[in-house]
Amino acid sequence: MNIKEAAQDLGANRLETFFLITLRQIKPGVIAGGLFAFIMSWINVEVSIFNSTVELVPIPVKLFNYIQYDVDPLFAALSAVTIYVAFGVVFVIDALIGIDKATN
């Protein structure tokens, strides 16, 4: 018998079982996958270029295009801000759920 079956035997319905058992077990993987995708979208500009459309251009692609064709210190500052945003996301996740809990 597994944990989900035990929860349902003790009276939890399928929705309660999903939120109380399954979601808590997969939460570290979902958080890690989300962080990985977020960070990789900033690192791999090539992948972001292939995933962009004419109407929707990701921020890393815009920064890459501006840095490639213009010399302006504004874009260096924007690049620094994006790094701070990435760190901010990690700190917010740590404050909300704790990275040590997400990795265990």
TrEMBL record:
Q: Does the keyword Ion transport apply?
A: no
What CDD domains does the database record attribute to this sequence? TM_PBP2 (cd06261)
What are the TM regions of this chain, as residue ranges? Answer: 30-54, 74-99
Q: For this UniProt entry, what's an example GO CC term?
A: plasma membrane
Record's keyword annotation contains Cytoplasm: no
Membrane-topology descriptor:
Multi-pass membrane protein
Where is the protein situated, by its record's location annotation?
A: Cell inner membrane; Cell membrane
Q: Which InterPro entries match?
A: MetI-like, MetI-like_sf
Pfam families hit by this protein: BPD_transp_1
Q: Which PANTHER family match?
A: INNER MEMBRANE ABC TRANSPORTER PERMEASE PROTEIN YDCV (PTHR43357)
Family the entry assigns? Belongs to the binding-protein-dependent transport system permease family.
The name under which this protein is listed is ABC transporter permease subunit
